[in-house]
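Recap from last week: sequence in, structure out.
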Amino acid sequence: MAIFIVLGWTWHSVPGYDVEPGVHVVAQAFYAKQSDIMVEVDGEVVRTIRPTEGNEGHQEFQMRLSNGQLILVSHKHRVAKPVPVTTRDHVTVRGNYQWTELGGIIRGTHRDSSMQRRHGWIELEGERYQ
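Predicted structure tokens:
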């Protein structure tokens, strides 16, 4: 039993395991130029970007958070089911925030087979894509 407790504590202590919900977390990370933060936010899709192909194809879209911040979402459609988003859709996204000068990117919106962080996902109209 003690082994499971120690392993559980170690696993939970890995950076990126704890999820920080809310727009304020992304805003603080942006202004502090921080990355590698698991976040959960919702917003409106304002632009879809043509999917990239190749071994690790990505579906990307830009969303506006309730505080007005624009953020790019990069979803590996080779790992997770593609999300049928269009402009004006309301989505909730859980993933790993990476700082950029343009507002940031949320990546890792899929199951993490390495168990180094919580699973990410995108929710659209009650359906979860991961």
